[in-house]
Amino acid sequence: MRFAADVADLEIADYQRAVRLVLRHPLITATFPDEKALPRVRRFAADLRTDLSEAFGYRLELHGATARLVRTADRLDPDRGAVSRTGRPFDRQRYAYLSLCLGTLGRAGIQITLSELAESVGGDANRITGLGLDPDVGADRRAFVDAVAWLEERGVLRLADGSSSSWASDPGAGEALYDVARDAVFALFRPPRVLQHIDSVGALLERSPISSGNAERRAAAQAARRAVLERPVVYFDDVPAEVGNHLRGQTLAADLQRLTGLRLERRAEGVLLVDTAGWSSERFPGTGSVAQAAVLLAVAIAERVSDPDGRKARRMPMPDPGEARAKLAGQIDAGLPAGVPLLLDEPDPVDPAGDPDETDQRRLPLITDSFLREATAEVLSAYGSAFGTAWHADPERLRTEAVALLVRFDAVVVVPGGVLARPLIGRYRSTVAQVKQRTLF
């Protein structure tokens, strides 16, 4: 056994739950995600430190009433952003307020009032061109409260007295007093490099030079395990050859089974980790109207691609992922302070002709926007009572959000005029989908 070697067989299920817990919640405090989480991690702290480091290159730190998993990132991921309690994704303003809150709390004592925090963050924000914070402006106040609520939910701030909702309604009429969990404050923001010394977000992904063949093989194995954990599906075409070799090997499946208790599913095109324990934050198929529409669209796309009697779908080459990564890095770097030079990595040039056999294999079926609109209309017609009146009134929004969900799970790739169906769509070929109908009164 390469991992969990010192864990007794009777405890392996508990150990695997602890591994899944840390992987899902990289920050664990006395109250987040619940009061039982931290004791579960502390029970296996030594084994977790060793295995997470050896298997994934992650670092587990425990300080006081806080456990922090410092991950190693291999690529920028736009789908892991922070969200508010109401499900609203954080924008630049909210991220800026969150960062300024952490800076203020790092200098604060063991308690702070909401108005004091707002005053300090406002002082810093008002010195930043294009940001600012005016508590009398509703949009600023809501964005600031979302940042504070994010910290409160994770136990970084603990409400001791008052209410943040009353302050959010009227800063002059309400107040809240918070206890500051200083261990959590210092554990939360741990960049791998001093931010003042980097000139692009891409620098955060840089690695130290590898000096030997053994180190290269170990790094490739770790990258393969990370890819399986952090992506909904890993296609062999999307990873370097050395990482793909580890993905194809039997050792990877055994390692992940031993560590997480989850089974690896392998197909000709790639692999995925089957989430039978509900450890991931988002699952597909999932619940809700958008998730239901997405799986029904996946079924329709699979039938369109495999229909022997229908018109053959046109095939197109996959877009260059390097261009998408460079574009995302440019969008992030656009938020750097004025005067900081940008040194963006240009994507490697791609030969549009390429190898004929390889290009033919990487061509994917094009599903047009018109087909997706027709399929969405058929879904609403066939399962009318399963979707609310708002979706019937705006089917285009339902289509857009359902396609976005399929994109997040690497089932399709958006291209001009439609989407390209990736191999994951094949899982839903000949699927009979059942949608729970709404009860009408």
UniProtKB/TrEMBL annotation:
Domain of life from the UniProt record: Bacteria
One Pfam family this sequence matches: DUF2398
Protein name: TIGR02678 family protein
Species: Actinoplanes awajinensis subsp. mycoplanecinus
